[in-house]
Write a structure and sequence with these properties.
The chain is an all-alpha fold and 52 residues long. It contains three helices and no strands. It is 77% helix and 0% strand.
């Protein structure tokens, strides 16, 4: 998530980086992980927006 949103690194490039470390996955899996993590991030995002 950090690479995707803070570093603006596309998922397909993250997959290539992970492959260099021996972790085999694909951008579809990463996309699913991002999609599934959004509900758990909701309270954090709301808190952050309230601080601003």
């Amino acid at each position: 998530m950090y690479d995707k949103f803070s570093q603006y690194l596309p998922l397909y490039r993250q997959v290539k980086e992970w492959e260099r470390y021996g972790l085999n996955t694909n951008d579809k899996n990463l996309s699913n992980w991002v999609y599934r993590s959004v509900p758990s991030q909701g309270p954090t995002i709301v808190l952050f927006l309230n601080i601003l």
